[in-house]
Here is the input.
Amino acid sequence: MKSFYLSFFAFLIIVLSGKGYSQSKDDFFLMPDGLGFSNQLEYSYDIKNKKPTFENWFNLDYRKGIFSAGLRFDIFQPNDPDPSISRGKEKYSDIAYKYLKAEIGDFNRGLSVTAGNFYTLFGRGLILKSYEDRNIRIDNNLLGVKVEGRYKDFALTVLSGMAENSLAGRKDILHALDIEYLGLSFAKFGGSVASNLPEPEGAAKTTLSAFRIQPSFWNIDMYAEYGIKQNEDVKQSVFNGNNAITGEAFYGSMSLYLGSFSFSGEVKHYDNYAFTSYDGTITYNTPPSLRKEYTYQLLNRHPSPLEQSNERGFQIEVNYNLDFDTDFNANFGMTETLPASSYFQRVNGFNNPVLLQHKEFFIQANRNWNESLSTILSFGYNEELQSSTKNIAPILEQRFYFGDINTIKVVIEHQHTTNKITSEKYYSNVLALEYLRSPNLSISLVTEVETKEPVEGKTLRKLWSFVRFGYKIFQNTDLSLLIGSRQAGNICIGGVCRFEPEFRGIELKMLTRF
Here is the structure.
């Protein structure tokens, strides 16, 4: 295995440092026609735990005429400790993704057939969202066959495939169909159905069905989708055969654009609508979470995972441009659990009260004073059921511009946290200094201090600090090197969270694309 790593690194070094084959001075390397590849490498060494981690994703794709094919070679040594991510593979290197695709016809009348591994999204993910996100180590690709067809104003997707469970096995079979009508200028219509056939003999299949509409008129865009869930075992054991529906979901959104003002609103109701494999280790659907994703370190750390079976709520956002140099943004969202009358509580035999699961408020003002100076003021507030905390965070971001190339950014974050169970109060401060020389170089220094007083009169402080260097090589490779320590916390994207433990050491990331 070590010899393989050395060979692999040698290959990367040759590619990155080799002489160009292109006659253009802007391109140092010219791939053969139809061939492309990308490589993402992440290596870290935790000094405190004396633990190295190596992860690598190598993608190779080729297209010739109506045919295309590709593969992804993964290396993890060791893998992520989370079993839903590692899937039983502590040390792993293999071709984890491969496909062959044929496309016939044109945009109005065409057909494409994919065999092998593939990803698919139906609507907004209410029924099916098969995707990869390496930041949170999600990869629920399907292995099977997918057929996509288009005839005039109709688009159809039919698939059959299996996802990999936590033990690296592909057991349950998923069949799914999605159809969409695009013939009207003011609206689109669509419908989806998906059934999961479990491996154990005699176990009932789970079926999700949904209908969606997407109107668009004047300065308004809207989207609405309603779905139901059916399972014969639940129908008989819980509802004595009297209720064919065992779960339901609704998602709706609206966006309004009016001059310098814009508004967007979303609403959700997810009641016993989680769509998983029989063993529960694979999640097929990931509907919109209605949680804001922040660029700031402290605000983006709080755990608030999406619960497809037991939540309802809304989120609204307003943007206003006062003039060319001044704009404002405000966001408010709230999520709570479902009442005792919900399918979720009745199916599971619960009788719990409605609880506030997540509430957040964020406001931001941006002002460009001149060509050399801009200021961003932000304020965030959130409450969470999972961590039982209430957080208040004012933030100041100052940018200094020196011509069109050089920028210095200063960010000061302060967050005051109250534990609603123990009444403990503590606060955290983050100071981030960043220098950017567009488009190739960035250097940042980030320091975080957490101050607690577990016993009155006894103050405890923890300090984390790191420096990160970023550099772009030949316009094809992004290199990032981090040295120092980083606080533990959650990374949440779209309501799916991954816990990052405390880290002290060195971390290297490299992304190459051709």
About this structure: The CA atoms of residues 422 and 454 lie 10 Å apart. Residues 1-28 have pLDDT under 50 and may be disordered. The first helix runs from residue 2 to 17.
